[in-house]
Request: fold
Amino acid sequence: MQSFQDIIFKLKRYWADRGCIIQEPYDVEVGAGTMCPETFLRVLGPRPYRVAYVQPSRRPADGRYGDNPNRLYKHQQLQVILKPSPDDIIEQYLGSLEAIGIDLRVHDIKFEEDNWEAPTLGAWGIGWQVMLDGLEITQFTYFQQCGGIDLDVVPAEITYGLERLTAFLQVKDSVYDIDWTDRFTYRDVRYLDELQYSVYNFELADVPTLWKLFDLHEAEAARLIAMYDPKSPEKQRFPLLAAYDQVLKCSNLFNTLDARGAISVTERVGIIGRVRKLAVGVAGAWADQQFAGGEPSQAVAQ
Amino acid sequence: MSLPFLLEIGTEEIPDWMIPGALENLRLNFEKLDIPHETVTMDATPRRLVLRAEGLPERQADREERIQGPAKSAPAQAVAGFARKHGVSPADLTTETTAKGEYYVFVKKVRGRRTLDILAEGLPGAILGIYFPKTMYWAGKGGPRFIRPIRWLVALLGGDIVPFEIAGVRSGAMTSGHRRLGAREIAVTTSDYEQRLRDHYVILSAEERRNRISNELAGVLVKADPALLDTLVYLTEYPTPITGRFDEQFLELPEEVLVTVMRHHQKYFSVEDAEGRLAPQFVAVMNIPSDPEGFVRRGNERVLRARFNDARFFWETDQKKPLRDRVADLAHVTFQAKLGTYLEKTRRMQALAERLGGDAHAVRAAELSKCDLTTELVKEFTELQGVVGGLYARAQGEPEPVWQAIYDQYKPESMEDSIPRSRTGQIVSLADKLDTLRGCFAVGLIPSGSRDPFALRRAAQGVVKILVEGRLAEIDLADYIDTPALGEFFDDRIRYYFRDIRGFAYDEVNAAMATGSRRLVDLEARLVRIQNLRSSPDFEPLAASFKRIRNILEQAGFHEAGTVDESLIEAGPERDLYEEYRRIAGQPIETVISRLRPKIDLFFDKILVNAPDARVRQNRLTLLNTLRAEFSKVADFSEIVTHS
Reply:
């Protein structure tokens, strides 16, 4: 039987063989692999890019104290970005499933319409949820817009839900029972995160403190965005990447406040708008910094 | 020679619900190319839109084009110049006489264009012109937009490839089979196309796929679900149903929840036992021909088990806090920014339910109606709001009228849907919809064009349907309409209901509505009376007379109520009419129409309303006004469209 990590190794190998950089997870809390700079910023502009990475993704509201067999506060996504999307992208994707031992001649695979949208990022795309024998295993998206900017080149984003995929392959009814290795289960590795973060997110997170942090990170991001000068000869030095980290902090705090029940439906729209404004601000500045004039900058030249 | 034509647009998976519309669009776009043909057949799977036509000509018919040149009287130099321009000598020109005189004409023989060329030129536009509700670009900014990326194109006219290109994809004679069971590149001709696809596990005909699903379902007691069947037909290229089972213990959960999970989340048909109860089985449709090892069945069973476990977890968790303890929580759920929280809405609904004549059960149901919005089950299955509340209320011991009213509160969800089953439910549903409508109109959230984010049209339509079909005769809708805009909005819905749903003629509806009352049960009864009256030979002439009366009164600017002064009435037709009126006043129009009509006719025939004596004139206007008031209780007959 393939372990959880075997499946990850194989998928990484598969995509590495197709020209992907294998990145490591981003070190700021995110709700999805899409939010990492390796996706959010790299999809902007004309330059081709291919990258794959596992991203632990935090969804505070989905926590269930480790009780629910299918729901997790933090799950692991394998995020693949192919920019531009090759013509045979779906064939390549199906090949990746075969690479982890799924014989698609005897399993049922369907592509069901599912258009992805991330209002806090000003991003959306067209695509599918991929169903394997009735189980959603992947979100497949052709990005159309990111940070409010129409993309020059359309990337394909493939997001595998690794726990689900492994539970399917190992025939486990609970993600906690999947074998991470032949000696450790997922429960051994992750149960405590699930329990303790559920307690924190639902019971103990201090709402005024989180709001204060939100305001601080928002102010820092906004300060940097406002300082960015597109005419400055030294604009390449400007720390937009650091500004973007502040946006990610805001996004995670928003999710935590939401799980804590501290955001009403009305407020919600307003806060999403605030985060979105920052994300769009960074994306616009980034596009200028990296691509204005059509010449790729030295800093990120291939 | 007559040629067959084949066009296949090979794409990545198109959303199932868009496919029939896209096919119709493609057919129309093809017709616009104006190429003669015999038959056209449209087919599609998720990965291909296909148009096949028979009997196309090899080229368009030759034709002559007449180009007018200089006048006959023009200098020879000009004539020679004209001839030279068209590559002929002046002797090859003919002449033509027009109204302005005689002119030289060059008759140009235009060879009919090759159909192949017309297609090559027109197909990219015909394809990219297909309307889809949401499109994407894939070949970079500024590239073509389509529903999903186009990956291959087959375009054959007889044995020839119709050459064109879309987003770097060149048309050819190669199709593609089933994603995993077929070959990726398959050479086809117009005659073997469908069979070649079949060899590669693609059933081209939607009808055949539908039958393949239905036939295999014949032995199973599947709950009929035509919409789901349509979805599955266009979600598969080689559909095969399989039957799976789930643990009977899940049958303890409400059937509504189980069916929703199966249908909406998993696209499964649910199955009934011989007594019509939900059986612990389901039918999934796979996109492969068989499942000999049972992999697909077991996979689907596991997914369903996980889904059901989730639902049970929510069901049990939610029960720990009964609905009645959740009312206060509604203070944290916003209904609409300007309209406050659901708690405020609840309080308004309770007051409205009472005002609408609801009893204590109705007020109680209104109070609990929105509490399910705070439950996990509704957060997970939003389409079950209301239903879930009703189920919880039942489980928590609320009386039957209360839980049923909560359960039915969103009914009717469409014009085809039934209204709430009980009077209590009808009152609660009215209270909910009226509150939303009144609130939204009060803060200016008024639907315009296709923009109707709060589904106010549906809500108003529901109100009309409930009032009429629930026989809620005592409720006058006018009492609940507090702005003119809302009144007009409702009038549109009332007209729509009686015309389009109930089939009354538009002038009948206008006539019945013109009398003002918005007691809809009464309105319906009056409409039936008008419809019956219409068969009377006296009806149209009488309606025409009422129109005349209305015009006369309007022209005279007559508004006084007043009573008729008998002393001023002239003997003859005027007195006859007046006395007839005295005799029949108060009687239903049906019984008096045949007596009234000749008197009115005669009156208009012989009497000048606009008499020289101002007092007589005034009295005659009063008489007409009195008649109009008396006989317009059923309807304003002057609204009836007459042919005389």
User: Anything to note?
Assistant: Chain B touches chain A through 47 residues (CB under 8 Å). Chain B has a mean pLDDT of 91. Chain B is about 45% helix and 15% strand.
